[in-house]
Amino acid sequence: MMASPPRRMLRVGIFALMAVLVAELPGALQKCIFDEVQARARVVRAAPAPPPSAPNQPEASLTDRPEGEASPPPGLLVTAGRRPSAAPPQPIRIRTWLPAESAGLSGAEGERLQAAVEEAVRTVSSLLSVNRRPGPLLLSRDVNKYCKFLWKNSSTANYNRCGRANKNYRAETCLDVTIPDDHLAGCDIYPDADSPRRTELRPEGAGLPRGDFLLYLHVRATDKCRAEPGVLAYAAHCQTDPSGRPLAGVVVICRDKLTGATHSRRATAQTVIHELFHALGFSKELFPTWRDCSSSFQVGARCSPRGRVTHSDGRGQTRVYTPSVIAALQRHLASTHPELGGPLENLDVPPGGVSSHWESRVLQGSIMAAVLGDPTTVRIDPVTLAAMQDTGWYTVDLSRAQSLVWGGDEGTMFGSLSACHNKSSSFFCTGSGFGCHYLHLHKGECQTDPHLEGCRLYKPLKNGSECWKEENADKEPLSGELFGFHSRCFFSNLTRLNRSEFLSLGGSVEGRCYRHRCTGPNGYRIQVSGSDWVDCPAGGAIQIKGYQGSVLCPDRRLCLYADVTPPADAVGASPTPTTRQVRL
Known about the structure:
Blueprint: E1 21-22, H1 34-39, E2 44-45, E3 78-80, E4 90-91, E5 94-97, H2 107-125, E6 128-130, H3 143-146, E7 147-150, E8 162-165, E9 173-174, E10 177-178, E11 187-189, E12 199-202, E13 213-220, H4 223-227, E14 231-240, E15 246-254, H5 265-280, E16 291-292, E17 304-305, E18 310-312, E19 318-320, H6 323-333, E20 342-343, H7 360-363, H8 382-390, E21 395-396, H9 417-421, E22 434-436, E23 443-447, E24 457-460, E25 487-492, E26 495-496, H10 500-504, E27 510-520, E28 523-527, E29 534-535, E30 541-542, E31 547-548, E32 551-552
Parallel strand pairs: 2-14, 5-13, 13-15
Antiparallel strand pairs: 1-14, 3-5, 4-6, 6-21, 7-8, 9-10, 11-12, 14-15, 16-17, 18-19, 19-20, 22-23, 23-24, 25-27, 26-31, 27-28, 28-29, 30-32
Helix pairs in contact: 2-5, 6-8
């Protein structure tokens, strides 16, 4: 193995993304090229028989360091995630390796990457659990690479064993990363069909203690990075266990995106989670290998193959039809339709084809939608977690799903082209005016994008859309706007009394930021500049003393979702002295 120069190692564990992290350019759509990359990746599936036990390796070189201890030596693997619980399944442990090809990260680059990945690791390890195999994680070698031919006579002693080595065999790779021999099982050559005599081609590696998935982080400015300006990273899985569960993958991180002024830790962490879900199972390449564990007490190898999980619904929409996904979507849309499968994105997908993203019109804001918007609008939603449960490889803590506000209780036809164009839902808009994003954390502009196929919604403005940022306030707010952690967006045409601006603006209704305070589920008061607190009845409108115009009070959008809040580190972040917010 090529010696690795000193580098800053990441105390992380979960970055098994497999698609594309995108640059946070204002107003730019995040682009995911997972399907393109994964389709070209070579995947090695482990043989049903477990490999021989690997030699013991000193734990000191492969465990977490106590806080304050010196940095580990080059190539050192570190683990993130919770410690094993008493009984299986247990939280997934993802090991991360920075290969020699990625040497030379600056301190700032390493810190940015570390912070984002650690956040993603904590999140995913709290959601997914696996049945852990005993012994170290040892990857398989590709017999089609190291072997020139296999003994194919089933009556011979060495049936299906390698009879002759490929003289050109050098190494195993995952995308462009060379897998260290120490991470790989050994391989032997059997020159005679019936003789036990064998020649060791490569020795057994030590493997990786306490690991369930191994991620190689490749930080470079690759040709694909240069060709795709909107891409922050891309990845693919390259190894699976006998049941099909991914064991290893690589993420290629576009080097210049770590140094850009638009870098966002939270956005990068969310993209890591997105790609990680791809790598761990939410992938059209893995859909056919999902397992059915309904008759088993454990997930994984003991479950039967689920078979084909995607079908067209008859209207050309390809959907994931698995029990947990159907049930989650029924609950979300308040529908009893028995075959309400999870709709998959159809942009740039041939008729009858499959993608690895949810349809944006139906599941806007989902962590597995094709486009990830502003970080405060992205949700690790119950439909996505249901899909991970239905892979059969994991048990999932479904109680940790974040509220998916988009389309809640809107019925079976929500998100269909006919429904959005017929203005049958308040989640969609028409024209190109200004209003409020549906979570009411941002002002928005009525826009569409290719994934919406002509449907329009209020998307956060490029600059100054956050109601929760005090620095976005005007010096003289004629509309009475108040910005801060507890402010939300309201449709309003308020203007101070005796101001000619009201007439010149035509009293147009648009998104305005006002302070709010919950009084109960779907109940709240608002405050504008210079006013007292005023009750705002959900679904109604109110006038404010000292102002012309009115404020519209959104129904079933505020004071129902406890987890829809500004970032915890926003200025003024503190609990609101109100009743606990819960969804009805």
